[in-house]
Design brief:
Helix content of chain A: 55-70%
Structural class of chain A: mainly alpha
Shape of chain B: globular
Distance between the termini of chain B: 89 Å
Strand order of the largest sheet of chain B: 6-9-10-3-11-12
Radius of gyration of chain B: 26 Å
CATH class of the largest domain in chain B: Alpha Beta
CATH topology of chain A: ABC transporter involved in vitamin B12 uptake, BtuC
Largest interface: A-B, 39 and 39 residues
Strand content of chain B: 15-25%
Radius of gyration of chain A: 21 Å
Oligomer: heterodimer
Number of strands of chain B: 12
Number of helices of chain B: 9
Order of helices and strands of chain A: HHHHHHEHEEHHHHEHHH
CATH topology of the largest domain in chain B: Rossmann fold
Largest sheet of chain B: 6 strands, mixed
Number of helices of chain A: 14
Strand order of the largest sheet of chain A: 1-4
Chain lengths: 354, 296
């Protein structure tokens, strides 16, 4: 792992009682361990059963990495929010709305695509602030507040789009002013080993690295874990709880915006239903990545691997020749297995080491 | 060791009252704490101890009376204000984040940083080192500052919270029932840290309803009962038994211990009776068994 909590060798004159903590065990209690080993297991499984059908090819890899990237961007932001002790179910609907805002503004109203992208970013930030503000001022569970927001945003997206354009799908983004530069940033492809890798993979890794840095190496990261682990203690000690949580809600909404932009620019169109169920998949990826539903524990790297597992399974069963209908059943089973493993890991982490 | 009760108290409450609707939580209560003393706030459940410390720690403001910090009348609008004035409160179980590491807990909200601008980062190495040093000063030698606080014993957790308050420049330390949930040995450990804090010149307000914890360490005792104060006594002025008696629990405790003895006695009797009944029943069952075996 690139970033670990302990910097080996820097500990002064080690306590003789410390020596007995097995390094393997230390690794075991890291939140992302389950997802990292799970990724290896899933990869080996598909390498064996679908390796000769293209899973191992560069194209196959580019294929599942793109799926993983588009979910992973959401999952990393959602993981941070969940570590901070809240949920956001409105991510998928923000994704749909942002995509529609970009296409409607640039295609119907002739805006430069960058202006449309900026406008949709402002919309996402606003949704994040509203979510956070309602949750924190009322003390209502974020699960309910953002569930309401999911329906409000999705419904308004469908209603407004139909009112303005008379349709629910809108294309033609490829011909609007500024498209080429936007394409370079959000939808270019990098040719490696004969296959085209989507630039979204870079976005995904950059965001994961940023999130990991924030979580492990900044005061703000410490506050995220603090407000998620024991909000009362954090507040008593002077952590600005409201600011931390509202920023996390903005983070998830903005992650929805980024994926919306990538997809709208890539496909040069938008659909009011885009992003449906993505909020749940993002939570699944975060949980598979070792983030606790109760908050205060988890990792961004874990969410990366959670999304990777998601991508490999979704594409892998297609390569295997199994009907894609089975994907959800497999996903559910993996989620269940992940929470069982996480429970075990957490108990180990909390165990008094004598 | 002995309290220097001359000079200005670090914190003083003068004739403070607090009402919640028509409930009188505190009525006309005064107390003070000086540097280098342990001031015990004693009272049974519902005596008003929590309300009193919430006034000192900035959670509530008094409806009547005055709060003075180092002689100056003060009004706190938030716990942060009290903290800035050097008044740190260690709440019974609300002071730590169990799943976070010891050093991250220690510096939560006041993280040391390194670097500049966007590269400003949480200085983990420094945090670990200071945490280790500060805990060592309190006599706790942690195995690993990266281990979760939840893995520590109750006494050690309290001690981490106390060490943190001391490190961040607290002049007054308010400890809300720090020994309530602890075993005998662990409570002893925490009492020792309280003594350490006093030795370092802090004023300690120690809230408890356990006289056996308060009496050995306290320099002065303020007794609360049903929202009113019985007054403040120096240790030389009262015996442990008198303190117990004043704490509204006095006679009741005596009564209770009699009752418990009575319970034990009747229990023993009952147990013997039960045994006897069992024997009889067994014998009877044998008879029934034999008779029912016989053909009708």
């Amino acid at each position: 792992m690139a970033v670990t909590e302990e910097v080996a060798g820097q500990r002064p004159a080690a306590d003789e009682r410390l020596a007995r903590v097995n390094p393997l065990r230390r690794l075991m209690v890291r939140p992302e361990m389950g997802a990292v080993s799970g990724s290896i297991v899933v990869w080996v499984f598909f390498a064996i059963f679908a390796g000769d059908r293209g899973f191992l090819s560069a194209r196959g890899t580019a294929n599942y990495l793109q799926v993983a990237a588009e979910l992973g961007i959401l999952a990393v932001a959602v993981a941070l929010l969940m570590i901070g002790g809240e949920f956001d179910l409105s991510v998928g609907s923000v994704l749909g709305a942002c995509g529609m805002i970009i296409v409607v503004l640039s295609v119907e109203y002739g805006w430069n695509i960058w202006a449309a992208i900026a406008a949709s970013l402002l919309f996402a930030i606003a949704v994040g602030i509203i979510n956070g503000y309602i949750v924190l001022t009322t003390g209502l569970p974020s699960f309910i507040v953002t569930l309401a927001m999911l329906f409000i945003v999705r419904g308004a997206t469908i209603g407004l789009t139909r009112q303005i354009t008379g349709r629910t799908q809108l294309g033609g983004l490829g011909n609007v002013p500024g498209y080429e530069t936007a394409k370079a940033v959000f939808a270019s492809r990098l040719k490696i080993a004969g296959a085209e890798f989507s630039i979204s993979i870079l976005w995904w890794l950059a965001i994961a690295a940023l999130a990991t840095w924030i979580l492990l190496r900044t005061p703000f990261g410490n506050w995220i874990t603090g407000v998620g682990g024991n909000v009362q203690a954090a507040r008593n000690i002077g952590v600005p709880v409201i600011r931390v949580k509202i920023l996390l809600f903005i983070g998830t909404a903005v992650s929805g915006w980024l994926v919306a932009t990538i997809q709208a620019v890539t496909f040069t169109n938008s659909d009011v239903l885009r992003g449906n169920f993505r909020e749940f998949y993002a939570i699944v990826a975060a949980v598979i990545g070792g983030t606790l539903l109760t908050g205060g524990y988890g990792s961004a790297i874990g969410a990366v691997f959670g999304a990777l597992i998601f991508g490999m399974v979704q594409q892998g069963i297609v390569f295997m020749g199994v009907d894609a209908d089975w994907f959800q059943a497999v996903l559910g089973a993996m989620l269940l297995a992940a929470v069982l493993i996480n429970r075990f890991v957490r108990n180990r982490a909390m165990e008094v080491r004598r | 060791m002995s309290a220097t009760t001359n000079g200005t108290p670090l914190v003083e409450l003068r004739n403070v009252s607090k009402y919640f609707g028509n409930v009188i939580a505190l009525k006309d209560v005064s107390m003070s704490v000086y540097a280098g003393e342990v001031m015990c706030l004693l009272g049974d459940n519902g005596a008003g101890k929590s309300t009193l410390i919430k006034i000192i720690s900035g959670v509530h403001s008094p409806d009547e009376g005055e709060l003075l910090v180092e002689g100056k009348p003060t009004r706190f609008n938030s716990p942060r204000d009290a903290l800035n004035a050097g008044i740190a409160t260690v709440y019974q179980d609300l002071a730590i984040v169990p799943l976070m590491s010891i050093s991250r807990n220690f510096f939560l909200g006041s993280e040391p940083t390194r670097g500049w601008g966007p590269f400003k980062r949480f200085d983990v190495a420094t945090a670990d080192r200071i945490t280790r040093e500060e805990l060592a000063k309190m006599g706790i030698h942690v195995r690993d500052t990266a281990q979760a606080v939840g893995t520590l014993s109750g006494g050690e957790r309290q001690s981490v919270a106390i060490a943190r308050a001391v490190y961040f420049g607290a002049k007054v330390l308010i400890l809300d029932e720090p020994t309530a949930a602890l075993g005998v040995k662990e409570a002893g450990v925490v009492l020792r840290y309280i003594a350490q804090a006093r030795a370092r010149g802090l004023g300690v307000v120690f809230i408890t309803h356990n006289v056996h914890h308060a009496y050995p360490i306290g320099d002065r005792f303020t007794l609360l009962n049903r929202g009113r104060s019985y007054g403040t006594f120096r240790k030389s002025e009262v015996t442990r038994e008198e303190v117990v008696a004043m704490m509204a629990g006095g006679e009741e405790l005596d009564e209770l211990s009699h009752e418990l003895e009575e319970f034990a006695r009747t229990d023993r009797l009952a147990a013997e009776k039960l045994k006897e009944a069992g024997r009889e029943f067994h014998a009877e069952a044998q008879v029934v068994h034999h008779t029912s075996d016989q053909p009708r």
